[in-house]
Amino acid sequence: MTSDLFTLEGKTALVTGGARGLGLMCAQALLDHGARVIITSRRQEAGEEARAALLEHGGECELVTVDLRDPAWEEPLQAALAPLTDSLDILVNNAGVTWGAAFEEYPPEAWDRVLQLDVAAPFRVVQATLGLLEEAGRRSPPARIVNIGSVDGHAAGPFDNFAYAGAKAALHQLTRVLAVRLGRRGISVNCIAPGPVRTKMTAELLSLAETSILETAPLGRLAEADDLAGALVYLTSRAGSCVTGSVIPVDGGLAISTWGRHEM
Length: 264
Description:
The chain is α/β, with parallel strands linked by helices. It has helices at residues 21-32, 44-55, 74-81, 108-139, 162-182, 203-216, 225-236; strands at 12-15, 36-41, 61-65, 90-93, 143-148, 187-194, 247-250.
C-alpha cells in the first residue's frame, strides 16, 4: 500500500536546536505527520515557548534543555532522554551557528565555534544516541538520521561566512561517511541542504541580498517551511526507507545556477 508512505505515526524523533528557525520547522513537520517529537534548546525559556507553540498544533512534544556548546553535554543529554524513550526512530541534527566577517578580518575563534557546533556536535549527538537509534533500527529498520546542511556546503556564494561554508561541506561528507558506517546497524543517514529560508539567522543576509538571490534562483523564490517539511518527511517516512548517503538540495536551484554572480 502507498497510502501510508508518508506517515510517521508511532515514531519518536529528536530535533536538536528545535526551538527556533529551521529546527522549529522540522519539529512542526514531524508532529504534523504523527511523530512524537523531543526538541533540544540551550535556553530553557525559549524551549518552553517553542514546546507550547508546537503543542497547540496537537501531538506530543517534549523539551530537553542542553547546550551543545558545552564540552560535556553528552551525559546530560542521555540522562534527559532516558525517561522519555527507549528508542529513537529519527534524529534531526539541526543545531548550528554561522559567523560572518570580511575575509581580511575573519577571526580564528570563528573556526573553533562554527566547526565545533556545525560538524563535531552532530557527530557527537549520533555517538550519544547510537544505542537508541540501533534499538529503533532493530524494531523497524532503518532508523533515520537527517543532518541539516546548506547550499553553502556545495556552492560558492558571495557571502563572507567562510567557517560556515567549510563546516557545511564537511557535514555533507560526514553524512556519506556515517551512511556507510551505520547502514548495517539499521540506520540511514541523509542530509537536507536548504538555500536561504526566512529565519532570524538569515534576516541580515536577506536584507542585503534577497533581490539578487531571487534573480539568481531558477525557480525565482526562497525555500519555505513546506519545502523543508516535504524533504524531511520523505527521508524519515517509509517513502525514504531505501535512501541513504544523499544530500538533497532544497534551494530553488541556486546550486546549479549562477549562485553568487549578481552584485549585492
